[in-house]
């Protein structure tokens, strides 16, 4: 069927707005409704016994894998290697015989990701893939496909594919944690409940659209933009920077907030907006002190946090976006939405071709 933009100006905005629905659909596919807990299909590997998971992907899918590394290591106690496919495939990396590979791809056709999968298979690894197009080359060559139910994604800049990848990966992290005895039943129930609430929270965040548009107009005037975060907010900072670069052509960098003092702090002045991804989690105070270092140097902060964080900051920032207070486990899924909207509105302000940014392709089958 022909896919239209509906009432939206761009596919990208339509796809951003679809997220409450497609996140809900994806979650339902992995949630046992009676037991209210995550249930994965039969896996080709024993999650309790694997020694290591190697996650490989490109672009935005790689950043979903980056969030998954934090989840799988901290919640499921599973060591994770993560790399971009175009590096991994050429590195002749030894792979642990008791390990497995996870590839993540919207299209299932990215040449480098496919080559990484084939390399792993040549070493006898089992491969699980997280795909939006299961009937793809990567889908056919995987031992198991976990399907993101994002539906067709037309905008070149990935939005709903990314957030549904995060949902599938969160489910995988919980299932892995259970299999490995790394989580007790009460904690698992709490994290599953937090996931169940995500669609409604994402819908709430979409209501901040007009406010994010105002902020984006200021961001669009900048030549350089910095995104900061720690923990799972670090990959979201990277994703925010990637999205902004891709569609608005503004130079943006994502940085681990604690690493800022080792370089990017030299860039900070009143011309550089600094977008701080700061849910109140166990690392919030550390991120907050990095934010104060930015403000002390005249940096213009866009603060993405919840009511507790906003209360602590007061009105010192250039802009504040107050997001719902949630279990930190699901924060990366929710904080994705404002960075998507900032990029979208900055691109509109710049007058770029949002759905077809120059030089980029939706599916990259060249190496
Ligand atoms: C291209 C797209 C990105 C995407 C990346 C990986 O660069 O423009 O949005 O993240 O490829 O694509 P995949 O289909 O493997 O997720």
Automatic annotation (TrEMBL):
Domain SIS: 43-182, 215-357
Secretion signal span: none
Coiled coil residues, start to end: none
Active-site residues (renumbered): 362
Cell compartments where the protein resides: Cytoplasm
UniProt keyword annotation of Transferase present: yes
Record flagged with keyword Repeat: yes
Chief localization: cytoplasm
GO MF terms, alphabetically ordered: glutamine-fructose-6-phosphate transaminase (isomerizing) activity
E.C. number: 2.6.1.16
Catalytic activity, reaction form: D-fructose 6-phosphate + L-glutamine = D-glucosamine 6-phosphate + L-glutamate
Keywords: Aminotransferase, Cytoplasm, Glutamine amidotransferase, Repeat, Transferase
Transmembrane segments annotated in the record for this chain: none
Superkingdom of the source species: Bacteria
Role summary: Catalyzes the first step in hexosamine metabolism, converting fructose-6P into glucosamine-6P using glutamine as a nitrogen source.
Subunit architecture: Homodimer.
Name of this chain's protein: Glutamine--fructose-6-phosphate aminotransferase [isomerizing]
Gene name linked to the record: glmS
Range within the parent protein: 240 to 606 of 606
């Amino acid at each position: 069927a022909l896919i239209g933009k509906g009432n939206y100006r761009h596919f990208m905005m339509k796809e951003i707005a679809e997220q409450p629905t497609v996140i809900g659909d994806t979650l339902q596919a992995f949630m046992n409704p009676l037991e209210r807990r995550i249930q994965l299909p039969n896996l080709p590997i024993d999650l309790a016994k694997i020694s290591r998971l190697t996650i490989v992907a490109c672009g935005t899918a790689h950043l979903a894998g980056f969030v998954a590394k934090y989840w799988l290591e901290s919640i499921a106690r599973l060591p994770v290697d993560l790399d971009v496919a175009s590096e991994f495939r050429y590195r002749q990396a030894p792979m642990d015989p008791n390990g497995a590979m996870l590839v993540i791809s919207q299209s299932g056709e990215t040449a480098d990701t496919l080559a990484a999968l084939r390399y792993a298979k040549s070493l006898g690894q089992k491969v699980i893939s997280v795909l939006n197009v299961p009937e793809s080359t990567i889908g056919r060559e995987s031992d198991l496909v976990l399907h993101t139910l994002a539906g067709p994604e037309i905008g070149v800049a990935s939005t709903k594919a990314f957030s549904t990848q995060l949902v599938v990966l969160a489910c995988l992290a919980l299932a892995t944690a259970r299999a490995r005895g790394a989580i007790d039943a009460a904690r698992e129930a709490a994290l599953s409940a937090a996931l169940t609430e995500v669609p409604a929270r994402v819908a709430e965040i979409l209501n901040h659209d007009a406010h994010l548009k105002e902020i984006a107009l200021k961001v669009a005037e900048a030549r350089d933009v910095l995104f900061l975060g720690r923990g799972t907010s670090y990959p979201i900072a990277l994703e925010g920077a990637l999205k902004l670069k891709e569609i608005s052509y503004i130079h943006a960098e994502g940085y681990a907030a604690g690493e800022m003092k080792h370089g990017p702090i030299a860039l900070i002045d009143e011309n550089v907006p600094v977008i701080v991804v700061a849910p109140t989690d166990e690392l919030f105070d550390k991120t907050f002190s990095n934010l104060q270092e930015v403000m002390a140097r005249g940096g213009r902060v866009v603060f993405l946090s919840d009511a507790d964080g906003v209360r602590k900051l007061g009105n010192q920032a250039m802009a504040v976006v107050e997001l719902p207070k949630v279990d930190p486990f699901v924060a990366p899924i929710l904080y994705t939405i404002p960075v998507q909207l900032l990029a979208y509105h900055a691109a509109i302000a710049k007058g770029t071709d949002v759905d077809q940014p120059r030089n980029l392709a939706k599916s990259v089958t060249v190496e």
